[in-house]
Amino acid sequence: MYNYEYHIFRELRWGCDPDSEEKNEEAHMKSIVYDQQSSSHRLTRLYIGALSTIALLALLGQIVIQFSLLRQSSDALVINLAGRQRMLSQELTKAALAIYVTTEATTRATNVAEMRSVEALWIQSHNGLQHGDAGLGLPGNNSDVVKRLFASIQPSFQAMVNAADQLLIFVGRDQASPITILRAGILPFLQILLTQVQIFLPEMNTVVSQYQSESEGRVNQLKVIELSLLVLTLVVLAFEGSLIFRPALQRLGKSVKALTRAEQQIADHMKELEHKSAELEVAFAEAMAAHRKVMPHARVVAFGRYQVQGAMGSYYAVESRQIEGNLLLTCECPMYHRNLICTHSLAAASLHSALLRNQQHGMPPSPSKRIDSSALDFRNQLKG
């Protein structure tokens, strides 16, 4: 009987099945922890996505800048060699004049060698600027405007090349001729060089100016790209702050508040349960003391339905009920409705335990049999 009544006391103490209450609290805490973990995982994914976006923009900016710097170094070389073409054309003409005025054979030979070297470098640079030259570091990727300018300069360039070649051939063939004959033979080619160089120089200036203009345009374009990347990065940061980090922080704050509120509710609930437990322990102790002093008169109406005599002589109905898989004996007296336990329910519990033991020994009780205190000694049942 003691084990059965103690289980009833545990149920009354917790208001329901204590194991079920503990499971509910555990499930509630697990739910809160799961929400916290989910919020943390979402925040982690958003944070990684934001950092990846910024890293991608930084990488894109570096790629654009490095490519532009490489292009700028190439542009500087192209502009430098294009400007040198003007100087080489003048050096070519100057060497031809030196050959014309020189009277000494040794000096003339030096001038001829210089003219050949200048002409070779001039032709190589001219072709490299148009079509590219790995030895000179020229890419040869000219714009349509530059190609048209080189096409317009080609006639004067070719005329100067032809005149220089014929002059060198003539000097090499007639070196032993008198100076007057040499000068007479050189003069027509020299006149062509002097005439064409006046055409070549301004046209080559135009080419150099176009190269410089295009290079400056690419620099300005690089500035625009860098500014655009900066603006885009700031926009992405603002977007991440307003649509990612701010909501994430708000959710995190709500989760912390919810966790704090849940902890407070659990603490309040535990205090309330402790207070009820103390009250029920007192009531249970009083009921057990009264039960031991006075054994109420009880009788069986049917199995699971009993009548127990109160202190004033009136009988109270006590019924057994299954609540959430647990057997409870409920009484109609005011004490039971107030404390969920009374002497009548405890007496009926003793009688019910005795009847259950009889069933286990193969002696099922008769529903119509009436058992009172003169026919059944509860103290003997308790001892049994």
Textual characterization of the structure:
The chain is an alpha+beta fold. The chain has two domains: 46-242, Four Helix Bundle (Hemerythrin (Met), subunit A); 294-383, no CATH class. The chain contains eight helices and four strands; from the N terminus they run αααααββββααα. It has helices at residues 2-14, 18-101, 105-131, 144-173, 179-293, 334-339, 343-360, 378-383; strands at 298-302, 305-309, 315-323, 326-331. The radius of gyration is 56 Å and the shape is rod-shaped. The termini are close together. Residues 1-18 and 365-384 have low confidence and may be disordered.
At a glance:
The chain is of the alpha+beta class and 384 residues long. The protein is 78% helix and 7% strand.
Write the layout of secondary structure elements.
Blueprint: H1 2-14, H2 18-101, H3 105-131, H4 144-173, H5 179-293, E1 298-302, E2 305-309, E3 315-323, E4 326-331, H6 334-339, H7 343-360, H8 378-383
Antiparallel strand pairs: 1-2, 2-3, 3-4
